[in-house]
Amino acid sequence: MKVVLLEDVKNLGKKGDVAQVAEGHARNYLLPRRLAVEATEGKMKQLAQLQSAADRKKQLEESKAKELAVQLENLSVRVYSRAGEGGKLFGSVNNKDIVDALLQEHGIKIDKKKIVLKEPIKKLGTYSLPVKLYPLVKVHLSVAVLAEQ
């Protein structure tokens, strides 16, 4: 019996997959627990429409990420922080500070989780930080940490 999986099922497939299973397994386990539905013609068409909509959404998100990457490529962000002797900061500069400075200086809003910062910045200087906008779209952002006057 062919079924369309509504949830991820271990050793069978992921949500949206079409799987060939024994009729007893489908009737006694998958269907009562609403893990799958019988793969009728209507369900197959509906599944195809959902997959095409998801593909269009992914393409749109990727194109937006590429446009944003082009904008971020040549930008430099200045972050001001209090500093002591030798350029050591009082506290540190983290993702949120960089995102706030980017929004204030250039009007570009991104999620703070997209900036890959292994550890907070604790010294003055210029840093090149990777920004992962989409799984295959990555750009480096120049961040200058300057002393506050």
How would you explain this protein's 3D organization?
This protein has 149 residues and is α+β, with helices and mostly antiparallel strands. It has 2 domains: 2-61, Ribosomal Protein L9, domain 1; 66-147, Ribosomal protein L9, C-terminal domain (Ribosomal Protein L9, domain 2). It has helices spanning 23-30, 41-73, 95-106; strands spanning 2-5, 18-20, 36-38, 76-81, 88-93, 121-123, 125-134, 137-147. The strands form 3 sheets. The protein has a 3-stranded antiparallel sheet, with helices on one face. A 3-stranded mixed sheet has the order 4-8-7. β7 (125-134) and β8 (137-147) form a beta hairpin. It is elongated, with a radius of gyration of 24 Å.
Key phrases:
Ribosomal Protein L9, domain 1; Ribosomal Protein L9, domain 2; 2 domains; three-stranded antiparallel β-sheet; three-stranded mixed β-sheet; 3 helices; 36% helix; 31% strand
Short characterization:
The protein has 149 residues and is an alpha+beta fold. It has helices at 23-30, 41-73, 95-106; strands spanning 2-5, 18-20, 36-38, 76-81, 88-93, 121-123, 125-134, 137-147. The chain is elongated, with a radius of gyration of 24 Å.
